[in-house]
Design brief:
Elements: H1 5-29, H2 32-88, H3 93-175, H4 179-192, E1 197-201, E2 204-205, H5 214-222, E3 237-240
Parallel strand pairs: 1-3
Antiparallel strand pairs: 1-2
Helix pairs in contact: 1-3, 2-3
The structure holds zinc ion.
Coiled coil: 44-172
InterPro entries: CT398_CC_hairpin (IPR056003), Oxidative_Scav/Glycosyltrans (IPR052376), Zf-RING_7 (IPR003743)
Pfam families: CT398_CC, Zn_ribbon_9
Length: 246
């Protein structure tokens, strides 16, 4: 293919924009700010699960304390009734002995239950404090996640701005290039994944960093300036300038 060598040199500006756009796309795919959001979400989920566990534990204990209080009440009422019957007097001695016996056993039972209740209340206090710290932890995690999302969104917006700028510059650079040369460039760019042309600098292809020698160098040297020559290694259009070392 033939193309005016000034037009060929315009491909370098296009290639610069494509390099910039490729780097921007890579940064968008590997954004550390996005990984930070994922990590923050994971921490938040773990803390939310811990909060559910703490809430369940606290609720269970609360229920148990209530049940225990009910048990203590039953024993206390029974003892009061027995006491009143004793105080009312007029009971046969055998019944007084039996009531006295029952009152002793109720007193022991009440004391046992109160001990258990006390222990439960201590556990409940610990569970409530664990619950409060789980709530606080989750709130902090939510704030961390929101901050991480803000940072990620800022980074994405910055990347979008830069991408729009380079896309505009690329369109401007492409505008002056004849269609056949531009479509060849684009075809090669699809194959390399980055650019379709590279500067030949000091006999080295700046696309793949391979230095030309021997027959290939001789062919490039003797080629017409308006002939489109390509790197045998990477396939890019080799753009020749005064720096090419030919
Ligand atoms: Zn090359």
């Amino acid at each position: 293919m033939k193309a005016d060598h000034f037009d060929q040199q315009r491909l370098l500006a296009l290639a610069d924009e494509d390099v910039a756009l490729t780097q921007l796309a890579h940064r968008r795919r590997t954004l550390p700010e996005a990984a930070a959001v994922d990590a923050a979400l994971e921490a938040e989920r773990a803390l939310a699960a811990a909060l559910v566990r703490a809430e369940t534990e606290s609720r269970d204990l609360e229920r148990e304390v209530k049940r225990m209080e009910g048990d203590v009440d039953v024993v206390r009422q029974r003892a009061t009734r027995d006491q009143q019957r004793m105080e009312a007097g007029g009971l046969p001695a055998r019944e007084v002995t039996a009531l006295q016996h029952e009152l002793d056993s109720l007193a022991r039972r009440q004391s046992d239950l109160e001990d258990q209740e006390l222990e439960l209340m201590e556990r409940q206090e610990a569970a409530d404090s664990a619950l409060r710290s789980a709530q606080e932890g989750l709130q902090n995690a939510e704030a961390d996640r929101a901050r991480a999302e803000q940072l990620r969104d800022d980074a994405l917006a910055e990347l979008a701005d830069a991408t729009a700028r380079h896309e505009k510059a690329r369109a401007d650079a492409a505008a002056g290039i004849p269609a056949p040369l531009l479509s060849l460039y684009d075809r090669i760019r699809q194959q390399t994944g980055t650019t379709g042309a590279a500067l030949l600098k000091a006999r080295q292809c700046q696309g793949c960093r391979i230095e030309l020698f021997g027959k290939e160098l001789a062919a490039v040297r003797s080629a017409d300036p308006n002939e489109v020559v390509r790197c045998e290694n990477c396939g890019r259009i080799l753009v020749r300038t005064a720096e090419s070392g030919l």
